[in-house]
Design goal:
224 residues, alpha+beta, Arc Repressor Mutant, subunit A, Muramoyl-pentapeptide Carboxypeptidase, domain 2, 2 domains, four-stranded antiparallel β-sheet, two-stranded antiparallel sheet, elongated
């Protein structure tokens, strides 16, 4: 079976499990017109990928059989419209008295919670190590991040984000971008300047990071 056919069969199996809830290999084979052996091969692969779970069903007569259903992880493979829902809710809030100010405080609250969540990971690290740690945090969040040290100025770093998971929200509510830069300043304890922005039509978000000019320590105290 060719790779394209493999993907097509896999997609059909996922679609069937999504619509029918759970199926046996026999159910799937009959519905798709393929052998049970072919179904089992795909099922084994998808189980390894964490997309399918099996349940042993005991019957009053005959041997027990397995039925298969999708995991929570597989749900991410199907269309979602979370960004539009978020925009709709923010738009409704914006129309309420004091709504704009409340939206601003919401973004600031999210910034502060993320700062509290990640500050301990920055403890006792040099600026370069903190930049690397921040890049790892952002990569886990889906930002496709990389960083480098300026060869002409060893005390300066650049952080690049090639993807923005909240782009649709950030395009309309620029508080998201402002709070991200402020969060970076808090975590890095450095001067952070955004020189490119995806929300402005740039090819990426670029942050220039420099050690604070006032000579503050490059290490975060445990008390912060």
């Amino acid at each position: 079976m060719q790779p394209q056919e493999e993907r097509s069969t896999r997609s059909q199996l996922l679609q069937m499990l999504k619509t029918q809830g759970s199926c046996s290999t026999s159910d799937m084979a009959k519905a798709m017109g393929i052998t049970e052996m072919a179904v089992r091969r795909h099922i084994q692969t998808m189980e390894k990928d964490g997309l399918i779970r099996s349940t042993l069903v005991r019957q009053s007569m005959g041997r027990p059989s397995y039925r298969y259903s999708l995991t929570e992880q597989a749900d991410d493979l199907f269309p979602k419209n979370y960004p539009q829902l978020t925009l709709d809710l923010l738009s409704e809030l914006e129309e309420q008295p004091g709504g704009k100010e409340l939206i601003g405080r919401m973004f600031e609250g999210r910034r502060d919670k993320l700062g509290t969540k990640y500050r301990e990971r920055m403890h006792n690290l040099s600026l370069q190590e903190r930049v690397a740690e921040l890049a790892e945090i952002q990569n886990v969040g889906g930002y496709m991040t990389e960083w480098l040290q300026d060869p002409k100025d060893p005390g300066t770093y650049r952080l690049y984000e090639y993807n923005c998971p909240v782009a649709q929200v950030a395009n309309r509510y620029r508080q998201a971008c402002q709070c991200e830069r402020q969060l970076f300043e808090q975590l890095l304890e450095a001067d952070v300047e955004r020189t490119e922005c995806l929300a402005d039509g740039g090819p990426r978000c670029t942050y220039q990071i420099r050690q604070k000019k006032d000579g503050e320590s490059l290490r975060i105290s445990a008390s912060q």
